[in-house]
Structure formats: structure tokens, C-alpha cells
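Re: the request from the purification team.
They wanted to know what the chain is likely to look like in 3D before they choose a buffer screen. I agreed to run a prediction and write the result into the notebook, where they can find it.
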Amino acid sequence: MKKLTTFAAIVLCTTMAYAQITQNNQQATNDSLLNRIDSLIQVTNMWLEHIELDLSLKERYKLYPTENIYTLLQLDTKTGMIEQVQWSLDSKEEGSVTINGDNLNYGLGYGPGSYELYPTKNMYQFILLDKTNGRKWHVQWGMKIKERWMRRIY
């Protein structure tokens, strides 16, 4: 009986040791797999951030010609900000002035292409359209500060 009890104890200890080793190996395999998955997620997130940044920079700014050959309007299609750009063969005559310096998307983070300018029959006036929700503004450019303005159309 003593031999049988000793034999049973040895078999039980061996089985428990084998189970512990198997469990440790399984845990090591799971940890390794989780580390690989974590690394893959980090690399994927890095690429997604790069792609998002790349897309947000493309076509953000757009130049619109006016009927005055020396004047263009520069629109930030992400924020709705507008600059009047004056070019010339004489560098002293070149420059830009702000028509709208306010970010119109209220920090909502809409991407580039959210705003578009549409010319009217009056060469000095355009309509600014927020393509995400339909808001509109009447925009006028001009050579004097009093001639440059923008107001919301309700």
C-alpha cells in the first residue's frame, strides 16, 4: 500500500508539474501574441495619423481669380478664412490682406474642402458656402479697408 501511495504521489506531482509547464508555455505564447498585436496596433495608428495629416494638408488652400487680373482670393477650405492677394510685377505693390480671419468651423475639425467660394455677377462679391451644413456668407473684396467685408446670410 505504501508503494502504491508513493507511486500515486509521484504520478500526481509529475502531472501537476507537466500541467504547470504547459500552462506557463501557454501564458508565454499568449504574452508573445499580445505583444505582437500591440506592436501591430501601434504601427497601424502611426500610419493612420500620417495618412490623416497628409490628407488634411492637401487642397487645404485654394486661390480664386477675380475679374481684376491682379487680385485673387485665397480660401482656407478647412476654416473659411479668406485673404485678398494682390500680385504685381513691382514687388512693392504685392501683398495680402485679411477679409475673414475667423475660424468658421468652431473647432469641429471638418477637413479640407468644407468651404467653397462662388462668384456672383458683381466682380467684387462672392458667396462663401459651408458645404458641411449649408451656412452661407456674403463676401466682398476691395482695395480699401471699408470695401472688404463679410456677413452671414440667414
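For the purification team: Residues 1-58 form one domain.
Please add any questions underneath this entry.
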